């Protein structure tokens, strides 16, 4: 499905500021749809004489009256005359309709103004119900919705200051409170009342001054001053970001909306969500993350101790072959230690392989040949990998680089080894290329008895689910071609 930005670019030549304003409108419209008990659609002009729907939102407080997806649909004036009229005249247009497959609809088209110009139209379609007395909740919701839609028509809502995270912002159904200009509660939904009871309120909210009541419940003096300033500012027409407050072990998220249709300040609407359990789980996850990072830190320390002991043993042995084997063991242990060091500083169990590999390359060159004139460079980005795949991948790369440094060049000869990475949506392709003497005649990777290549074969097949080929370079030297699938890999 096309995005809002793509559809606006296709059908309009709106400036960036206007597009940003429509993005802000869409960011707020789940609240608008819920308060209106209506489907809300965003329309822009379409050549030659119609309108196109560029976004659609269904309410969570009522059944949808538009089950079909309208996004991308171009309609004529005959089908939606109220939308075209609102776009042309710049005034709110109401209409009734009776589609064949649903009950009669109550329709309204609201011009969206930005910088004094009508740039789009919001339509809200709701089912017409039989004549009955509206509940207090319905009345409060609809009055608030009418005020916000009027402000959209006037270009005063939403403003550039309103940049809340709409994914985490409270919805009307989470809890809704309507305040008059003095901050007195004229309506509080059952969920809002439950949230305040959880914070320690022992009475009803109706008729109380929400500013004073909330401040009295919050125990932290600094937080109580902040919430008082936030709510008092809202009823006086001052915008602010949503804020969390804690009281008696409960945590709630508050968001206050200024209601000022026609430039007349009418108080504020407050949406509230009880996030106590969410915060408790977040704290538990943070505690677990800290524990995991501490484990990685201790594993790294232990591996560094092992590497130091192996290094000490290598210095004390007089056998050249044993010293070389111990040096390679030091390098392998160090590569694993560096991965755990990166994980100990990560909050999401992921490793930036570029950083780890860049730190390992000097160690690999030193271990492969003392006084080596070979230079190793990296091209492209390996990217970020999850912990369970980072360790085997780092070991494979270091083994391949060491193999090139150690075997591709004559002793004391200069040369270059290039680690070239290319990452797509599905694959990580790595080529380790050297300018050396190339593969020996009859070389076969599967039958090679070199320990490093045996380790590489096992890790690539069993841990990474990838493939590895060693072949002659296009002009000179050897290419080690590694392909690793990204995402989940099913290993047999």
Could you list some keywords that capture this structure?
Beta-Lactamase, 492 residues, 12 helices, 4 domains, 18 strands, five-stranded antiparallel beta sheet, alpha+beta, six-stranded antiparallel beta sheet, 42% helix
Describe the structure in your own words.
- It is a single chain.
- The protein is an alpha+beta fold and 492 residues long.
- It has 4 domains: 143 residues, 2-Layer Sandwich (Beta-Lactamase), CATH 3.30.450.280; 103 residues, PAS domain (Beta-Lactamase, 2-Layer Sandwich), CATH 3.30.450.20; 71 residues; 122 residues, Histidine kinase-like ATPase, C-terminal domain (Heat Shock Protein 90).
- The chain is built from 12 helices and 18 strands.
- The strands form 4 sheets. Strands 3-2-1-6-5-4 form a 6-stranded antiparallel β-sheet, sandwiched between helices. Strands 8-7-11-10-9 form a 5-stranded antiparallel β-sheet. A 5-stranded mixed β-sheet has the order 13-15-16-18-17, covered by helices on one side.
- Strand 15 and strand 16 form a beta hairpin.
- Helix 9 runs antiparallel to helix 10.
- It is elongated, with a radius of gyration of 33 Å.
- The protein starts with a helix and ends in a 7-residue tail after the last strand.
- The mean pLDDT is 87.
